[in-house]
Amino acid sequence: xxxxxxxxxxxxxxxxxxxxxxxxxxxGIVAASLKGHIRAKVATAIYAEIDAYAAKxxxxxxxxxxxxxxxxxxxxxxxxLVRWNMKHRTEAQRFHLLMRSPVVQLALRVVSIALGDLxxxxxxxxxxxxxYTAALAQRH
Length: 140
What we know:
globular, alpha/beta, 6 strands, six-stranded mixed β-sheet, single chain, Transcription Regulator spoIIAA
């Protein structure tokens, strides 16, 4: 595997000015690459896909989110993010997030406060990809 890239069964979500790829690279791990401006319809579709996966497999408690090219979440998408993560708070193990946008950082601060030390924010791709590679190596 080279870096953080979609593998296996990739789920694609498209909306006005947004592009999301979601995949499950190993047992207990979900990964996503998000670009553009996420709206509620796309956010709820992503969480529905994760819930469908969890119903058939183990819950993916380790999350890797590449938000580097994400520009914003609308209010309803932010609320979907908070509600879903609070619902699954006890199943969550670790959230690794790569982000640059100050707007996205502010939006995700609420989730970070709610989930506490489960959230690891990576400010550079190298540490994010190293954590991803290490998590996959532990699962294989």
